[in-house]
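U., I forgot to send this yesterday:
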Amino acid sequence: MKEKNKVPSHLLSEVSEVSRTTKILSNPGTRSKNPIEDLPKQLIFGTGRRKGLRSFTWKVNNSNTEITRSVSFWHVQSNWREASLLRYLRLKYFWEKLSPTEVQFCFDHPKFLSDVEFNVMLSLLANTELTREEITERSERVLALLGKKSFFRKLLMRQWDNNVVVIADLVKRSIAKRKSFSGWVRSSSSVGSKSSRPSIPDPFILDDNGVVDFDEFEFLYRGILDQSVSANSLTFNFR
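Result:
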């Protein structure tokens, strides 16, 4: 089945707004020209044991500047694997009021918005009057029709907080200045091959074999809204 993942428009604007306007200052009386320098140098989530920690890194959005010639990234240590760590961050973002820096830390990860259920729930929260409790309860019932489990129960927050530990250090590294390219090449063969290869068709967009275009986002969104989705709905009427 081919799945589509849609990021709600209000989240896209929040990503750019967080990256552009995060201003938690170590000294309230001063303002840095580089917003990255205004971020706290370390974030800590959870109270789990700090043993057997794994390391991950991801780049801070809009951290590369021509003025400072540096790049900033998060050096993250956790006792959980990266996939489980992302589930924890999504759960925490959904249920808790995070600081602007914590929000930026989450959105800086390139896969933070890659979960269909997470995006559906946030979209419903922004566009409907459903509460978080109502959304999660209905989501569990609809996901059960797909043979999936939900990872957004509020009860998981305390359990996961006590087991996970996340230590994120903001690291700034200088980058070497690139040499300017004059445009001169030894010969035309230096530029690369001039022959063109035929494109390889994508099997997932072929419809000759009756492949069903199943939109999981639409299925979950409508199912949570009207609660009329049943096992019979899996005939994939949503296209």
